[in-house]
Amino acid sequence: QLIFLGTGTSSLVIGSQARASGGLVLQTDGFQFHIDPGPGALVRARQFNVNPRENTAVFVTHNHLSHCNDINAVISAMTHAGEDKKGVLVCNKTLYEGHEDLEPYLTKHHRDYLERTIVLNTGQKVGIEEIEVHAIKAIHSDPHTIGLKFITPKFTLVYSSDTKFDESILEDYK
């Protein structure tokens, strides 16, 4: 099941919440993945009866407000403010380290709440039981932006995040 908590992107849309911006939740094979928890992620999760405590992993494709503003709140809710060290964060390099004038939205404090953090670059993959997640090429102003390809026993889901179209990305998205 794929639950859309909101995909609003521009600052005008986010500011007015004309479109919600809480990201996506993928529930499959007993796992729950919260993808790109932007502003309002927890409020929207509650509206759709999504319990953040059930998150297996949180994925962040890039370090822009619309895709990760609520990362620390989601981690806190998932772990009972760090009392229950659990879950995995899979993110791009900029969310974890920052880049030039981009400070990371993820705080060092909230990193410690998690069981594990995995920083993925384009071309790398991670496995969660029988589910493979590939970091695929995306072209965006955050130079480390990634798209995600979830390969499950039942289906494949590709999430492009924010990317410009370029023929060089087509193979990854097949």
Describe the model.
The chain has a 6-stranded mixed beta sheet. The protein has a 4-stranded antiparallel beta sheet with strand order 7-8-9-10, with no helix packed on it. It has helices at 11-16, 41-47, 65-68, 71-79, 93-97, 108-111, 170-173; strands spanning 2-6, 23-28, 31-35, 57-60, 88-91, 116-119, 125-128, 131-137, 146-151, 156-159. It is built from 7 helices and 10 strands. It starts with a strand and ends with a helix. A hairpin with a 2-residue loop joins β2 and β3.
List the topology elements.
Layout: E1 2-6, H1 11-16, E2 23-28, E3 31-35, H2 41-47, E4 57-60, H3 65-68, H4 71-79, E5 88-91, H5 93-97, H6 108-111, E6 116-119, E7 125-128, E8 131-137, E9 146-151, E10 156-159, H7 170-173
Fraction in helix: 10-25%
Anisotropy-based shape? globular
- The average pLDDT is 89
Spatial strand sequence of the major β-sheet: 1-2-3-4-5-6
Biggest beta sheet summary: 6 strands, mixed
End-to-end separation: 21 Å
SSE ordering: EHEEHEHHEHHEEEEEH
Please mark out the parts with pLDDT under 50 across 5 or more consecutive residues, or reply none. Answer: none
DSSP summary: helix tally = 7
Strand content: 25-35%
By DSSP, the count of extended strands is: 10
Oligomeric state, counting identical vs distinct chains: single chain
Class by helix and strand content? alpha/beta
Instruction: Using the CA coordinates, give the radius of gyration.
Output: 15 Å
